[in-house]
Specification:
With 188 residues, this protein is mainly beta. It contains one helix and ten strands; from the N terminus they run αββββββββββ. The radius of gyration is 19 Å and the shape is globular.
């Protein structure tokens, strides 16, 4: 009985020692699109050590195009499935809401995959893929780039973002927004 209790306490204490503490990530991003003018986005992610409860993230994007404008917001829960000094991978599910393109409002179910390579180093690399769909529409949102640490928890980032929307509710319509990004990323 004492051995079982000792082993249980040892396992519990080692699990608690490895659990992540609460943290947050946030950022602002300027997006110079090739054919839709200037755009921007802001995001925040909240992480916690509570098992089975997903972490939370939100991202808002505004594109002020010459013909079409876009306002979108992504809300999703995610889990860190891998987190070490070489790779960090998050998988999530949520909702993507967009209005502006084709004079429609779209709310779609969304899957999210985010990865960061060398997250604990002075220079790291990131990728993010959001794929959203409903009965009539699909949205693909892909970004990749590099982060350079300026100060503890503060990074400059630069990359490329590609956003593709296809709406079939009023006949097939599609548009894509793509271009280079630059911004600030905070990870505490």
């Amino acid at each position: 009985m004492k051995k079982t209790l000792s082993l249980s306490l040892l396992l519990l204490s080692s699990t608690m020692a490895q659990a992540d503490i609460a943290g947050a990530k946030a950022g602002l991003e300027y997006w110079r699109t090739s054919d839709h003018g200037n755009a921007g986005s802001a995001y925040v992610q909240i992480e916690h050590p509570i098992p089975l409860v997903p972490n939370f993230a939100a991202r808002g994007t505004t594109v002020e195009g010459k013909v079409n404008s876009l306002n979108s917001i992504d809300l999703y829960g995610y889990y860190e499935v891998l987190d070490n000094s070489l790779t960090s991978i998050d998988l999530g599910l949520g909702l993507h809401h967009a209005n502006g393109f084709f004079n429609n409002d779209h709310t779609l179910a969304m899957a999210v995959v985010e990865a960061e390579w060398l997250p604990d180093s002075q220079v790291s690399y990131y990728t993010r893929l959001n794929y959203a769909l409903n009965a009539d529409d699909t949205v693909s949102d892909f970004g990749a780039g590099v982060r350079i640490q300026l100060f503890p928890a503060v990074y400059l980032q630069a990359g490329y973002r590609y956003y593709d929307i296809r709406a079939d509710s009023n006949g097939v319509q599609s548009d894509e927004v793509k271009g280079f990004t630059a911004g600030v990323h905070i990870d505490i």
